[in-house]
């Protein structure tokens, strides 16, 4: 029987990589978003707002979907609002996709805030590293926990299986993504090169010197496909990271070398990007004109606040992949190549010089 996947958030960095992976494996794929965005060969598109149940049901209930991949979220002012809104988004989607005939499996993409806490208390009292799926939930509100509970309730009601993925910071191709460190660092490095500014690490000494990891969306896509199709992965939660670890002091040097920049070492204090890049759009307009780049604004490409939050953490952050390895998932990705592959594509598409 043909598998038919519905990918919610198909225009984002996670959703588009999962959609491409599913298409490459011969699946029928429908992508849902609120409005047209990145188009993927082989993917049919439907448009609806997951916060409007009737509109959503009209759009997807008759599609004959067998597998759901939920890859989106909406940031709110407080974690209480995050819980309310993001819980409703998933609940509405599960209700609509199961309205006519129950699906076989649902995949939910969350993240390492499962172990670090929400933005309001981010990394203040994290779980012990390496993060393992067997660790319990942290106290307090966390919309990831609310989403998991919605997923479990739907599985119990409709009889489908489920899997949850907890990636770290995503390093891959996406433009206009609110959590895109890879493109942000490419823009920052290009500005440093153009202006002669030093390639200063903007985060904490703990992040600069500590052990950490990231997630390539290509690995996440393969992991999500595996969890949706391998019986051993049913009804399980998984960390999803590249499989190697690094220290930012090492990677900062390597990224700098790619752009012809020297790492001056940690400045001794946190030097966040958001205030330093307040005039980045003006500088970027010069760079675009000088190098004949696509006409994007730096503020459309870079997510200064999110990179500041990631690199400003004062605790070590990395996840264990043993559970997946024991169950048969053996994919990995060398982290420096996640960055250089992204930078190569950004250059090829005339996004950066």
Automatic annotation (TrEMBL):
Matches recorded under SUPFAM superfamilies: NAD(P)-binding Rossmann-fold domains
User: Mind telling me which InterPro entries this protein's record contains?
Assistant: NAD(P)-bd_dom_sf, PRISE-like_Rossmann-fold
In this protein, which residues make up the domain named PRISE-like Rossmann-fold? 56-353
What is this protein identified as?
Unannotated protein
Which species is the source of this protein? freshwater metagenome
């Amino acid at each position: 029987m043909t598998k038919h996947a519905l990918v919610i958030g198909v225009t984002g960095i996670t959703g588009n990589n999962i959609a491409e992976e599913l298409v490459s494996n011969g699946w029928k794929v429908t992508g849902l978003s609120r409005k047209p965005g990145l188009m993927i060969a082989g993917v049919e598109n439907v448009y609806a707002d997951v916060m409007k149940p009737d509109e959503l049901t009209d759009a997807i209930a008759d599609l004959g979907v067998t597998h759901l991949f939920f890859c989106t979220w909406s940031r709110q002012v407080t974690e209480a609002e995050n819980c309310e809104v993001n819980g409703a988004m998933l609940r509405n989607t599960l209700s609509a996709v199961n309205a006519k005939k129950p699906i076989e499996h649902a995949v939910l993409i969350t993240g390492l805030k499962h172990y670090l806490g929400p933005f309001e208390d981010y990394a203040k009292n994290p779980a012990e590293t390496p993060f393992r799926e067997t660790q319990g939930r942290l106290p307090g509100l966390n919309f990831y926990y609310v989403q998991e509970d919605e997923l479990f309730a739907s599985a119990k009601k409709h009889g489908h299986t489920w899997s949850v993925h907890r990636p770290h910071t995503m390093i891959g191709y996406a433009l206009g993504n609110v959590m895109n460190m890879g493109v942000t660092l490419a823009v920052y490095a290009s500005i440093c090169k153009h202006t002669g500014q030093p390639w200063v690490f903007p985060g904490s000494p703990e992040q600069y010197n500590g052990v950490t990891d990231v997630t390539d969306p290509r690995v996440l896509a393969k992991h999500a496909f595996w969890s949706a199709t391998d019986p051993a992965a049913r009804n399980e939660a998984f960390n999803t990271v590249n499989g190697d670890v690094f220290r930012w002091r090492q990677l900062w040097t390597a990224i700098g070398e790619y752009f012809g920049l020297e790492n001056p070492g940690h400045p001794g204090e946190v030097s966040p990007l958001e205030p330093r890049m307040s005039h980045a759009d003006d500088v970027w307009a010069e760079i675009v004109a000088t190098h004949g780049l696509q006409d994007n604004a730096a503020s459309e490409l870079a997510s200064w606040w999110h990179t500041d939050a990631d690199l400003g953490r004062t605790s070590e952050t990395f996840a264990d992949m043993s559970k997946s390895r024991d169950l048969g998932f053996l994919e990995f990705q060398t982290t420096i190549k996640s960055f250089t592959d992204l930078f190569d594509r950004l250059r090829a598409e005339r996004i950066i010089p």
